[in-house]
Specification:
The chain is an alpha/beta fold. Helix 2 links the parallel strand 2 and strand 3. The longest helix is centred in the last third of the chain and has 17 residues. It starts with a strand and ends with a strand. The protein binds NADP nicotinamide-adenine-dinucleotide phosphate (NAP). NADP nicotinamide-adenine-dinucleotide phosphate binds next to helix 1, helix 7 and helix 8.
């Protein structure tokens, strides 16, 4: 059984549908039985088990599902207790993409190994979209000297409220500030540094700028490179915004301001809009000390669809016993082919 926590949410409901489509058995878990039953009916999953609880960790420890997919967000706080509740033997998957939550989950590696459990953090476009390209470029090669990754998602907006889970992730990203790896260590950088304009393989263009996301950490872990830079198209490109970003990030470290910002952002109502570009792209450039450079791209459609597909594929593989014990980013747990099984195409230039 694969429990989907937050099953009424944007990603949770899609993951449930995709787990079922892959032959897995999703169990929809949420805080309100009526909303979960409604979601199940909308997904054509009316027969599946639903669980109403506001204490997911206690419920997991009691009922011992094979795999838990956490889509409730707030991963810096929710990931560790929920993952620990899966021990021993149960597996855990989340969609974190920030540098507070991911290191905390990865720090459970030894506990997970001892208990025979696999924990995967970053199972979405955020992290795997670029990590898979780095892993492919580095296969059977010595450790590179420098890696650059660029996350260029394209997402259709359904409308409706942004929601607290996503709002917490966005604010958490801003408060981390800018970071990069130099000499094997994570060092501060300016948020929005390294602005880039990409000529995409399909002829379109996209802009990105420096962001301290989980992609930075995953690229370093997958390559071992001492110097790593990560950019994202989600960091606004305009010069004025880039100047204001670090100031906003510093202010948002103040707890009451942060809570206020999360509440306001969660209540923002998005207007439905098609995705701005046909494709979502993950891009990586890997360089070695001998002057060799390799470049690769991951291409997929809507980044949200890819995210749901990655999480579902990861959960189903873990339920089949394909993971090895420990705590990992997705490509380190299941290889770059996970991204291909989830609908991505990786090409090496
Ligand atoms: N890595 C990536 O590429 C990627 C991509 C997309 C999303 N994400 C992340 O995935 C998370 C989910 O995103 P989403 O767009 O699906 O969010 P969403 O639509 O707001 O859904 C969140 C779900 O979690 C539930 N929830 C929220 N807070 C909770 C709490 N404290 N306790 C229990 N349940 C709670 C909500 O249930 P109720 O109905 O009870 O409110 C809802 O079902 C976010 O953190 C987002 O940043 C990552």
């Amino acid at each position: 059984m694969i429990w989907i926590l937050g099953a009424t949410g944007r990603t949770g409901r899609e993951i449930a549908a995709q787990v079922a489509a892959r032959g897995g058995t999703p169990v929809l878990v949420g805080r309100n039985a009526e909303r979960i039953h409604k979601t199940a009916a909308e997904l054509g999953l009316a027969g599946v088990e639903v669980i109403e609880t506001d204490q997911p960790a206690a419920e997991i420890a009691r009922r011992r599902p094979a795999v838990v997919v956490n889509t409730i967000g707030g991963y810096a706080e929710t990931a560790v207790p929920i993952a620990r509740a899966c021990l021993p033997g149960g597996h855990y998957v989340d969609l974190a993409n920030d540098l507070v939550a991911m290191p905390r989950l990865l720090a459970l590696h030894d506990e997970a190994v001892a208990a025979g459990s696999t924990f995967v953090t970053g199972a979405g476009f955020g992290v795997l979209g670029t990590e898979a390209v780095v892993a492919r470029l580095c296969t059977d090669r010595p450790t590179p000297s420098h890696v650059q990754v660029d996350a260029l998602p394209s997402v259709a907006i359904d409308g409706g409220l942004l929601g607290e889970a996503l709002a917490r992730s966005i604010i958490s990203g801003l408060t981390t500030g800018g970071l990069r790896y130099e000499g094997g260590r994570m060092v501060p950088a300016r948020l929005g540094a390294d602005p880039r304009e990409h000529s995409l393989p399909d002829g379109q263009t996209a802009k990105s700028a420096g962001a301290a996301t989980g992609e930075l950490l995953a690229a370093q872990l997958s390559s071992g490179a001492p110097a790593v830079v990560a950019t994202s198209a989600l960091i606004p490109g305009s010069r004025v915004v880039r100047v204001l970003l670090p100031v906003a990030g510093a202010l948002l470290k103040i707890a009451p301001l942060q809570r206020f910002a999360v509440r306001r952002l969660a209540a923002v109502e998005g207007k439905p809009a098609p995705r701005p570009r046909e494709h979502t792209w993950g891009h990586a450039v890997v360089s070695w000390a001998d002057g060799t450079t390799r470049e690769g791209w991951l291409r997929t459609g809507d980044a949200m669809d890819f995210t749901a597909s990655v999480a579902a594929e990861t959960a189903v593989r873990l339920a089949r016993g394909e993971g090895r014990p420990g705590a990992y980013t997705p490509a380190r747990a299941l290889g770059p082919e996970l991204a291909e099984a989830a609908g991505g195409t990786i090409s090496v230039c």
